[in-house]
Amino acid sequence: MNIEVTSQKSAIAVAMKETAIGMEKMVELMNTGYPKLMGYIAEQGRQIAGAPYCCYTNCSEDFSRFDMELGIPVNEVVPAVGEFFMSQTYEGKAIATTHKGTYKEIETAYTALMDYAKENSLELTGVYYDHYISNPADTPESELLTQVVFPIK
Questions:
Q1: Residue 122 — very low, low, confident or very high, per pLDDT cuts 50/70/90?
Q2: N or C: which terminal CB in the chain sees fewer CB atoms within 10 Å?
Q3: Could you give the CA distance from residue 28 to residue 22 in angstroms, rounded to a whole number?
Q4: Which helix (H) or strand (E) holds 33?
Q5: Is residue 63's pLDDT more than 90?
Q6: For the chain, percent helix, then strand, then coil, each to nearest 5?
Q7: C-alpha pair distances (Å), 113 with each of 30, 31, 64, 151
């Protein structure tokens, strides 16, 4: 797995958030959240400007509970309404890798990044991003690409 230290650029995004959820709720939130976000972006007449992402924060030590932000980068700011708000992706140094394959196997990328950080004495911020490069609606599971990004201090 190719891991690199990168310099991330920030993007504005329409987002929604859930707090203190577990893995069982994560899939449900993604399956309902991204279509809602895309509908709201279209309703506002804005253009998608990047890959949808999921940002994990406030993770418990065993990753059983976390806060989760779903977002889609856009070309212009939209009004915050109901569950939708404007957010900004991380800007700064990070370690990153691209995972190819099913989402069920993405843990291998997380483990590799954590091992890399430890081996190279890098301090993680405790925020983790998955950027969904491929669309699961038209990409075979074995070909899905997800960029996994761990911001570092």
A1: very high
A2: C
A3: 11
A4: helix 23-43
A5: no
A6: 25, 40, 35
A7: 23, 26, 18, 11
Question: What residue type is 26 in one-letter code?
Answer: M
Residue 118 makes CB contacts below 8 A (sequence gap 6+) with none
Q: Position 30: which residue type? A: M
Give CATH for domain 4-151.
Answer: 3.20.80.10
The whole-angstrom separation of Cα 139 and Cα 153 is: 35
Q: Model confidence at 24, in pLDDT bands (50, 70, 90)?
A: confident
CA–CA distance, 27 with 150 (Å, rounded to integer):
21
The residues with which 98 forms a beta bridge, in sequence order, are: 147
In the chain, the amino acid numbered 48 is I
Confidence of residue 60 (pLDDT cuts 50, 70, 90): confident
The span from the CA of 144 to the CA of 153, in Å, is: 29
How far apart, in whole angstroms, are the C-alpha atoms of residue 36 and residue 1? Answer: 33
Q: Domain extents for the chain?
A: 4-151
CB 3 within 8 A of CB 113: yes
Q: What is the mean pLDDT of residues 109-130?
A: 96
Buried b (16+ CB within 10 A) or exposed e, 115-141: ebbeeeebebeebbbbbbbeeeeeeee
